[in-house]
Amino acid sequence: MCQNVPYNGCINHPQKVQVKGGPGERMAKAQKATFSLQPDLLTALDEAVRGGAAPSKNALVERALRNELREVRRQWRQAQWELAARDPLFKRDVEEVEQAFRGPDAETARAIE
Q1: Which helix (H) or strand (E) holds 94?
Q2: What is the pLDDT along the chain (113 residues), one digit of tens a residue?
Q3: How far apart are CA 88 and CA 84, in angstroms?
Q4: At 41, which helix (H) or strand (E)?
Q5: Cα–Cα distance for residue pair 93/99, rounded to 1 Å
């Protein structure tokens, strides 16, 4: 497992879950979890499911959690880029790469015009 990620997972090596009907046709078994939620949130969850937002409460909560974790990972990556932007070694490396590819990039640009 990778280190220094914002939750127990790895943004560089995400776990793939097979969807039923997909390649290999196996589906990860869900595990039961217990959470306490505010009554207004539970009411909103019930209403959303009744309104067709998801086939079940579990499905809606899972989708919301996946979306939230995606945002956590995006914010973590953004913070890493901001740190890198202040790192002199990283900036020098980027400048060297840009300089090394300046000629080939210009050549490619001329070829596609």
Answers
A1: helix 88-112
A2: 455 555 545 545 455 444 455 555 556 788 999 999 999 999 999 999 999 999 999 999 999 999 999 999 999 999 999 999 999 999 999 999 999 888 887 888 888 87
A3: 8
A4: helix 39-50
A5: 10
